[in-house]
Design brief:
By secondary structure, this protein is an alpha/beta fold. The protein folds into two domains: 52 residues, no CATH class; 171 residues, Rossmann fold (3-Layer(aba) Sandwich). It is 32% helix and 17% strand. It contains eight helices and ten strands. It has an eight-stranded mixed beta sheet, sandwiched between helices. The chain has a two-stranded parallel sheet with strand order 1-2. Strand 3, helix 2 and strand 4 form a beta-alpha-beta unit. Helix 1 packs across helix 2. The longest helix is centred in the middle third of the chain and has 16 residues.
Amino acid sequence: MIVAVDFDPIARGYVATLAKPGGNVTGVVLRQIELTGKRMQFLKEALPNVTRVAVFWDAISADQWREAQKTALAVGLKLQSVELRNPPYHLTDAYRTAARGRAEALLLLMSPVFFPQRVQVAELGLKSQLPTICGLAQYAYAGALMSYGANLDDMFRQAALYIDKIFKGARPADLPIEQPTKFELVINLKTAKAVGLTIPQSLLQRADQVIEWFTTAYSGPARSFGLCCGPASSLGSPGLSPSSART
């Protein structure tokens, strides 16, 4: 079995170790729990005056939610739990819950159930004026404010290489489960402008991709359509109205 997933196969009991998975399982995995704290740090850096953050999570991302709770105090954030059940999720209700809790931003934890609804996530985030950080660039391409995570295309390319090796006679048990080594920060300046934010230049300079315009009808690779400019260090001041202190 080849896997290219965003959960911890050790925690789920599928393999004993990544180096020697044994059995009939190998592939590429992304342990999202290890990136949760980093996403919260990027969100705080982008919105330094924000303190109240809604967190959308589900049963698959429950371990990320627990990690977010551990990290919140150190980052200076108060979290509002919004658990979603029974997919496809009723995101409109979730955003209303966030609004009632006076959330100033949104952390969307990573679950494959959320991914098909990424355009709706972006649209509702704009409608609710709720800056959102997610874990895959495809969310930022669709219109979310920011994303930080591994390149999904790279993960599946690596999985395809493993399939080729197995077809040529390699045993899955002998192939270590690999993890991504490169992570990308993507910032959507069009969204920042739409919600009235100025992204600090120091953060823009560290971004791997900066999106200057987007259409919510499209959520594919940005570079293929010229949606991004970079490196971000080549950007001047975005010239957006500062309103990152949202109360």
